[in-house]
Amino acid sequence: MEQLYPNVLHPCWSNSRHHLWERIHLPVAGCCNTKCAFCDRNQASSCHTHSPGASRILMNPEEAVGRFLEEIEKRPNLRIAAVSGPGEPLANETTFSTLHRIKSARPDIHFCLSTNGILLSEQIPRLLKLNVETVSISISAINPRSAARIYEWAILDGNLLQGFEMGKRIIQKQLEGIERANRVGIRVKANTILIPPINRFEIGEIARNLARVGASLQNIVPLVPNANMKHIPPPSPAELTSARQTGSKYIKQFLHCHQCRSDVVGIPGQDTIL
Q1: Domain chopping of the chain, boundaries
Q2: N or C: which end of the chain has fewer CB within 10 A?
Q3: Residue 91 — φ and ψ, nearest 5°?
Q4: Strand, coil or helix: 216
């Protein structure tokens, strides 16, 4: 079955809902190098909050590895360890320490990361050393003006940036990271948040560029209104379907996302919060 990974076995890559492996999201990445307008940076969220980045607790690497080893004893189908937050995994040394410890204890486990992509290109040597096979990158704009509305600020090469120049450089770094990851054999899925007032009319261009730089899959998901975007209504089902149809002209679409928290284990949609 190994040769079917990730397209059949990974629950966040397969459009089939059969033969899926379980995965665990370990909440070890506390810091973030961007501020998204829809993120309240709440790392102590209620267990009733169901959105990306939500986490009841923040674990250190020792705690995370200990919990992983406990879960794998109870769950023989648990085959994937991932870090998706609550901050930016590639901006936290705890991410790499956690994955290194798991690799030492269980070299058979597959690794996955979710990232905003700003540091992806420069961190690829470390990902290769850990044998990270799949990465999900959030890219929701191809127009710098749109990116400047989605990101309130970002730290880029040690500088705090805002506005058009920030948006331009974020997009450049995201596309460069995808292209380099593809070149070295790391599979990339792109998560695109549909925010109709901002990016509805650039979904096709986003998808076209994702295909150009070598992404394997696009996952278009609705905005979860929150923080400084709590006043923006989420897209309607018709708008979401239309966006996915547009994206599918350029790149394969993933259709089963549950916009999972950063502290869960199991199959998406049937999760247990850690």
Answers
A1: 2-273
A2: N
A3: -100, 5
A4: coil
* Neighbouring residues of 197: CB distance < 8 A, sequence distance ≥ 6: 232
Distances, alpha carbon 52 to alpha carbons 39, 167, 172, 256, in Å: 9, 21, 24, 15
pLDDT digits (tens, 9 = 90+) for 108-117: 999 999 999 9
* Cα 216 to Cα 6, 58, 140, 173, 175, distances in angstroms: 11, 31, 16, 18, 13
The first and second tokens of residue 203, run together, are: 């979904």
Determine the Cα–Cα distance for residues 158 and 149; give it in Å rounded to an integer. 21
**Angle at the Cα of 68 from the Cα atoms of 65 and 69, rounded to 5 degrees:** 90
Structure confidence by residue, pLDDT tens digits, 188-211: 999 999 999 999 999 999 999 999
195 C-beta neighbours (distance < 10 Å), count: 23
**DSSP percent split of the chain into helix, strand, coil, nearest 5:** 40, 20, 40
Residue type for position 59? M
With contact defined as beta carbons under 8 Å apart, do 174 and 141 qualify? no
Residue 245 tokens, joined: 């149809």
pTM: 0.93
> Tokens 């209620």 sit at which residue?
46
Asked if CATH classification 3.20.20.70 holds for the domain at 2-273, the reply, yes or no, is yes
